[in-house]
Amino acid sequence: MSNKLILLICILFASCIRQQDYEKKDPRKKSTEAIGDQHQQDSLFKNIATLLDGKIKPDEIGDSIAILIIPIDAACDACRDKAIDSVLEHRSKFKKGHFAIISANGLKTIKAYFTSRNMQDPTDDRIILDHQNVAFKEQLVYIRPTAYYCYDRKAYKRVTSNSITVKEDLQLFFE
Fold first, then answer.
1. CATH number of the structural domain spanning residue 41
2. What is the DSSP string of 72-99?
3. What does the DSSP 8-state code read for residue 33?
4. Which PROSITE patterns would you find in this protein's record (predicted)?
5. First to last CA, the chain
6. pTM
7. From start to end of the chain, where are the E strands?
């Protein structure tokens, strides 16, 4: 290995440790974001409605809606697996207006993930596969499981889980 490659690896490792130290000081501050801008609330809800593609029933559109988006090809293994396991564990107890979106760049990627874990395709009316990566394209999710809480056609809160907060964030989503 060249010295430059070793140096690059050391710098990346040090920056990860520094980021973890920051998150340990105040992980909730980094995880939860209130969405105050009315234009952003409307825009995010429109993007969420696009992602759900008619899955929200007309009598639910103005009610409370919670959506958990899991980017299975981009999220860290621990966050992704905890989120998927929680969705599967709670699938029969999803509240009205709660949805889980499993997002990736291609159906093959999604199927490969579940096959590698000896699991069946979990889709139903509340668990939806986003195999065209619409969540990423609409800037709803990047590399972490993300939950949105909506009411009256507006998104009011975004919770972007990290390795420290994922368990607590999932408990909030499923309570």
1. 3.40.30
2. TTTS-HHHHHHHHHHHHHHGGGPPTTEE
3. E
4. PROKAR_LIPOPROTEIN (PS51257)
5. 50
6. 0.79
7. 32-34, 65-71, 98-103, 127-130, 146-151, 154-160
pLDDT tens, 108-119?
988 988 888 888
Confidence band for 58, pLDDT divided at 50, 70 and 90: low
Can you tell me which residue has the tokens 């969405």?
A: 35
**Is 142 within the bounds of a domain?**
yes
pLDDT at 156: 93
45 lies in some domain: yes
pLDDT of residue 67: 93
CA-CA-CA-CA dihedral for 165, 166, 172, 175, to nearest 10: -140
Q: Would you say 142 and 69 are in contact if contact means Cβ atoms under 8 Å apart?
A: no
Q: Is 144 helix (H, G, I), strand (E, B) or coil?
A: coil
In terms of Cα–Cα distance, which of 91, 82, 42, 45 is closest to 65? 45
